Amino acid sequence: MKIEEWSNWETLGIDFPIHFTLYVAEVEDSVNNFGNLSARLEKSIMSKYDSINSINGENNSLKSIRFPIKCEMVKWDGWRDVLKERFDPEILNFESRNGQYAFYILPGSSVNTRVLVGNQRQAIIEFKNWNIDFVEKTISNIILSLFLPEQAAIKKFILEPSADAKVEIDSMRTMKYSPMYQVTFSLMNGDPSSLLVDWDIERAVDKYLKPFVDEISIISNMTVESQVQHYARFTFEPRKNINNENESFYLTPELLPHFINAAEWNLASAVTSYPTLNFILYVPSLEQSPLYIQDSKGNVVNNNAFLIPRWGGVVVENPNRSTGSHTFTFGELKSAMSIFIMQLRGLLG
């Protein structure tokens, strides 16, 4: 699993709130009650949004990018002045802000409903039919016609990045070039009181990593060191799940950015001016075992591993605890080392 999946829109959800202030003309002899216009508009617009999205067959990723509508009605006493000034939106002095818009609504004598849009996110709408049902329908249609194309463009930009954007994401993941890199392998034990762990890392590095190091030596060299650390606790609680009386624990995408406990885990390597790449084989405590990594859809990641851009990678192992100790043998480390090498290739670009 790659760290880019942490920002999966379906998991996180992104809101682009839009606020409309409705300045409604105060008409003394009006038989209409516009007091609930805001609530009616919000309901009408969201209902039309849902219908359009259903017709377009939006998937969960698209639905996770939302544009919540908030309407606020204000009584407007100065509407007659607008008529005197030739229906000019610029005299309204509306101070626009991102995501905020103003509609000035007034009755008119024209045979058609007129709409004039200003350059400060404001518009004047003169209605031929001063009826709340007609006003609600007209405004909701105007809002949809104005904002649906823009919202579709925003969704496409986020969910279908251009080739240039893809290159930018890749550049954020990879390390900057260096003629030398320091690679540190760490075996992190969540709780040695319940399980003592060790590993045959020297043989594994010589067998599995050395061919790759030799392969790239024409452009960069690597120094490799390893360590074992105990009491490597999290600063958070993994998600717990009980199924058929068997407990299991999960690292969800939103928890992964907090995995590294920089305050307590000593991951500093020997003093060097060259970039350091860290690879962690993590063994959880008994109270948090077995521990698995979930993707954004709630599925367990097959290799139980994830990549941290410009930093390194992590593999989580759940060894047998029956004897109170476990040594990861040369053969057992083959799978983890294969993952580490794949992550290393990704980090070096």
Automatic annotation (TrEMBL):
Gene Ontology cellular component list: GPI-anchor transamidase complex
UniProt xrefs under InterPro entries: PtdIno-glycan_biosynth_class_S
Pathway: Glycolipid biosynthesis; glycosylphosphatidylinositol-anchor biosynthesis
Main location (coarse class): endoplasmic reticulum
Family: Belongs to the PIGS family.
Localization of this protein: Endoplasmic reticulum membrane
Alphabetized Pfam families for the sequence: PIG-S (PF10510)
UniProt keyword annotation of Repeat present: no
Superkingdom to which the source organism belongs: Eukaryota
UniProt GO BP: attachment of GPI anchor to protein; GPI anchor biosynthetic process
Keyword Endoplasmic reticulum annotated: yes
Name by which UniProt lists this protein: 15538_t:CDS:1
Protein keywords: Endoplasmic reticulum, Glycoprotein, GPI-anchor biosynthesis, Membrane, Transmembrane, Transmembrane helix
Phylogenetic lineage: Eukaryota, Fungi, Fungi incertae sedis, Mucoromycota, Glomeromycotina
Membrane-protein topology: Multi-pass membrane protein
